[in-house]
TrEMBL record:
<dbReference type="Pfam" id="PF10387">
    <property type="entry name" value="DUF2442"/>
</dbReference>
<protein>
    <recommendedName>
        <fullName>Integron cassette protein</fullName>
    </recommendedName>
</protein>
<dbReference type="InterPro" id="IPR018841">
    <property type="entry name" value="DUF2442"/>
</dbReference>
């Protein structure tokens, strides 16, 4: 039996809005708000870098220009991920 070539991935992620407080992200038919307080590494990023987001394997969000990885589960269940990044003052 010969394996067929995989088709195109139809799952995608999209940044819907960027504000002074954070950004709205759409992935897996859900919207998420990522506040700069909880996700500070996006705060000073360029808009084009924030908008360049990929959804890998249906659950892995990746911003290649920023080298940031997040799983959608961490957005849906933040209580399961108690360690957070803190900016140095």
């Amino acid at each position: 039996m010969k394996l067929q070539k995989r088709g195109k991935t139809i799952s995608k992620a999209e940044v819907l809005n960027i504000s002074t407080h954070g950004m709205w992200l759409y992935a897996n038919k859900k919207e998420y708000f990522l506040s700069y307080k909880e996700y500070p590494w996006f705060e000073d990023a360029k808009v084009k870098d924030i908008c360049n987001v990929e959804l890998l394997n249906g659950y892995h969000l990746y911003w290649p220009d920023l080298d940031i990885d997040l799983e959608t589960d961490s957005l849906e269940n933040p209580e399961k991920y108690p360690l957070t990044f803190r900016k140095e003052q």
